[in-house]
Amino acid sequence: MLKPNPNVLRLGIPKGSLQDSTVDLFAKAGWKISIDSRSYFPSIDDSTVEVVMFRAQEMSRYVEDGVIDLGLTGSDWIQENNSDVLEVTELVYSKATSKPARWVLCVPQESAITKPEELDGGVIATELVGVTRRYFEQKKIKVKVEFSWGATEVKARLLDGIVDITETGSSIRANNLRIIDTLLTSTTRLIANKKTWTDNVKREKIENISLLLQGAINAREKVGLKLNAPREHLQDIIRILPSEKSPTVSPLADGTWSAVEVIVEEKQQRELIPKLKRAGATGIISYPLNKVIP
Questions:
Q1: Burial (0-12, 13-18, 19+ Cβ within 10 Å), 225
Q2: Which residue, 59, 69, 135, 201, shows the most beta carbons closer than 10 Å to its own?
Q3: Which domains are present in the chain?
């Protein structure tokens, strides 16, 4: 095992489905991570951080063991591995949407089974073996839970049912399956080794990373709006803008116009911009945001 540098924070990022969205999130937070397809050690433009890639399924184990100081993985795999780690923050992002992932119990659409109890004595395939076994044990339902190496949806018609992960439900529908229960809902977590957390220097760095990653997530569905408002229409224009936060208003040089700036939900701009234009606003600019820190 490569011994970690005590002066460098070793960060684990998930390889696989979350890889690209994680790199994109870090870029918006201010860190450029470059991945060589032949290496598990990406480069990062921060001399105080070292990056290594692991599967999300095993990340929490390596954080707990101190192989890495910090990592990103799903709360599902923390539960699956029973890992004793510090959950620094929840990061609601995924490969496809901002929705949490769900582990669901499914049967074929044509199956007569409508509830978990009817699977008693059956065989269930899943990648999330430990959580699934505990789920059925708690319900006192006797089933055999087998590990699935992939293509789990196919096995729903070969066995009695499956437990699989879904975000949008599209794969479930495409395979003509029916959900009869949800075992758990999972989001990505930034987790830290408990010993690392006691190191004041590394803890501050982890807190900085957490703050900026959250800021990048907060900015995902928001945009900035800039516009010019004639003095005689300024109050009418301000009344159109969302009332949660006061806009920034700055007088322009000639005194008859003001510059107005505000952050809004991205979907809101579809309704706001035409209204603002009709109210007398000019020079309206909509721009994306990298980070929003509350």
A1: buried
A2: 59
A3: 9-96+188-218 (3.40.190.10), 101-185 (3.40.190.10), 222-288 (3.30.70.120)
